[in-house]
Amino acid sequence: MPGNIFAKKVQVHEIFKDERFLYPEFVPERMPFREPEVDSLVFSLHPVLQGKKPQNVFVCGKTGTGKTATVKFVLNELQQYSDRAKGLYINCFQLNTRHSILTQISNFLGDATPRRGIATDEAFAKMLEALKHTSFIPIVVLDEADQLLHDKEASKLFYDLLRVVEYGKGRFGLIFISNLSNFVALLDDRVKSSLSEQTISFESYSPSQLKEILNQRAQYAFHSGALGSEAINIAAAHAAKLGGDARIAIECLFRAGREAEKENSEKLEIKHLQKIFSEVDSRALQKAISYLSIAEREILGFVPATKAIASGELFKAYSKASKKPLTQRRFRTLISELEKKQLITAKTTVKPPRGRTRMILLAFPKNKLELTDKN
Ligand SMILES: Nc1ncnc2c1ncn2[C@@H]1O[C@H](COP(=O)(O)OP(=O)(O)O)[C@@H](O)[C@H]1O
Ligand SMILES: [Mg+2]
Question: In the chain, how many domains are there?
Fold first, then answer.
């Protein structure tokens, strides 16, 4: 009789001690290299301990620099220390309408009105009413807040929040998080000055910082001896190359660990990492594309698939076709942004008759742009 097909799959070698430490939503109990950012957040929020007005905060930095984890970590600590404040975390990729966010905040404040069937203005009124009766100071986090700027109705939420801040007489705190360093500049003046009193910028991690972050995480996630000696260095170097993104670094270890278990290998080796790099890279690319603004996406649409185009030509082609053309200055800014995101390369050439020109080349296969089309 043949053996049971599952019997063959029983693992002899276990790589993970507890893989949950590598899940993207895991919030570590310590945030190495983020002490100054943690301190700034504590400084902005600490007035709530005396029942006073917290400072509203804007947190910015590229993906994987620890923005979300740091804010969640600080809120956890605050709630453990005192019951005067409570945090509500909202990811605007998941909740992206004015109505759904207002309802979510209302519910958090203790209003039990069902979400469906009431108009947005009513949802807003209910929220103000609920705010009157809360026994704690709410601190609302809007992560990926720039997602709301894509939509006119959703953008009105910033005005709503401004009114809440005024109405609540300071018994309400806000934290915005965005990958866009110019997010605040995109807001209207009144909203800008009142809602982002303090900005905290997160810089990308260096290769050695990524290594340290991985080392700490690996202690909890892997069995001792299950990691080949070079695995962490290679994973950290790979993530550093992709822009210093800690999420990518951790994801590489996680996937390679799975791969090692699949092969029933004793250890996670470099070959397992090499096997999963291309998949991780392609997901990172997909993510970078999904974060693009409409204008950036439009510009990329005019870059030829396989050959370089002079920046001036690109501007012309884009301006002719776009319904909302940009100024040349704004266009240049966006080109630099796209270059920073490693989605294009922009090499300066000096050739007659044009003279100094930047030649723009797409840094990824063009069909990926359509695959992640939003509309
Ligand atoms: N300083 C750090 N120490 C430990 N883990 C970190 C640190 N910075 C980031 N991470 C981890 O890296 C991943 C990405 O961080 P995240 O906060 O989601 O980045 P962002 O919100 O800036 O895109 C998360 O799993 C997070 O726990
Ligand atoms: Mg985040």
Answer: 3
